[in-house]
Amino acid sequence: MAAEGLECLGVEVEFPAATIDDAILQRFGDAEMVANMEKVFFGEGRNALGHSYAKLIRGPAGRNDLEDVIDLLRQETWTKRAVLTLCGTGDGKVPCINVIQFLIRDRTVHTIYFARGQDAFRKFYADGHCVASMARKVADSLGLPSGTVTGFIGSCHVYHQDLPEIRKLLEATKVELTVPNFIDKPGNRPLQFIDSQRNVRTRPAGESEKASQKHSENAVLRNLSQTHGGPKA
């Protein structure tokens, strides 16, 4: 990955499934990317990203429309088998998101997914939007709250070519994200973000400029994940 970009391994993220009116997504997300990702997950026609998951999704009864997941949860409230798998076709290509599980606990639908890898800057939020959409469909069909989406990402990464734009975004919003009306909103973590930014600007004594740059770039990746989804670990 070093030749392509920067990554954090084993990242856990969590966000509300009710992302329809998310202010951060509306302001910073790419609406075209979200629209194309919806086609990837839910459409079988051509799209700008060049691939489709719709035919690769399999529920517990082999369906790809969530109906078998919903039926199973309706019949067996405590089941752990309400799972979607997304597998490749044998051509060497594997979907970024591989497993999505739906659990009913405390009369709430909790959604958990595993991704082999996600581009934290370009695609993570669009993937998250689609998984959250599935969570809401399942919850609404069962008449339950949609709760949270928790993701486990094997390789959470950004690409070198995106670093200038990432730095520009972080620099432009670092002060804004500390204002009281932002801090007071549930789920926002601006203080962590700002503290990490201070660390980016401080080079420990004896550390080379090259090592400091690598440390800074890795911190940028962590900050990006914290700001757009909030990794828990």
Would you mind describing this structure in some detail?
- With 233 residues, the protein is an alpha+beta fold.
- It has a single domain (5-227), classed as Thymidylate Synthase, Chain A (2-Layer Sandwich), CATH 3.30.572.
- Helices cover 39% and strands 22% of the residues.
- The protein has eight helices and six strands, in the order βααβαβββαβαααα.
- It has helices at residues 23-28, 31-42, 67-75, 124-142, 163-173, 180-183, 190-201, 209-227, and strands spanning 5-16, 57-58, 83-86, 97-105, 108-119, 148-159.
- The chain has a six-stranded mixed sheet.
- β5, α4 (124-142) and β6 (148-159) form a beta-alpha-beta unit.
- The longest helix is centred in the middle third of the chain and has 19 residues, at 124-142.
- The model is unreliable at 188-207 and 227-233 (pLDDT under 50).
Summary?
The protein is 39% helix and 22% strand. The protein is an alpha+beta fold and 233 residues long.
